[in-house]
Amino acid sequence: MVSYRIEFKHSAERDLRKLSYPVVSRLLDRIEGLAEMPFPRQSLKLSAVEKTYRLRIGVYRVIYDVDEEHETVTIHYIRHRREAYRNV
């Protein structure tokens, strides 16, 4: 099984800095799981953008791209559900 590399955009890093440690810890556990399974059952492809998915983790949404050719998962945003789809 191929392990994907996880990359964070600056926007995702900035989003993480705004959250409390317990929330960040839970989010990072699930994000690390994307390295082994970039298309988990809970993910949903966003129809507006090619190769872009969202992962629901409680009230937070992780917006990410998967590049199968380069085996990379790029995390774009980690936001509360009411703000998650702005700028996507």
Task: Please provide a written account of the structure.
The protein has 88 residues and is of the alpha+beta class. It has two helices and five strands. It has helices at residues 10-17, 21-33; strands spanning 5-8, 43-45, 52-57, 60-67, 72-80. Strands 1-5-4-3-2 form a five-stranded mixed beta sheet. The longest helix has 13 residues, at 21-33. The radius of gyration is 12 Å and the shape is globular. It starts with a strand and ends in an 8-residue tail after the last strand. The model has no long low-confidence stretch (mean pLDDT 91).
Give the radius of gyration. Answer: 12 Å
First-residue to last-residue Cα separation? 30 Å
Instruction: Summarize model confidence as the mean pLDDT.
Output: 91
Along the chain, the helix and strand elements come as EHHEEEE
Discrete helix count: 2
What is the helical fraction, as a range of percent? 10-25%
Strand content: 25-35%
Broad shape: globular
Biggest sheet layout:
5 strands, mixed
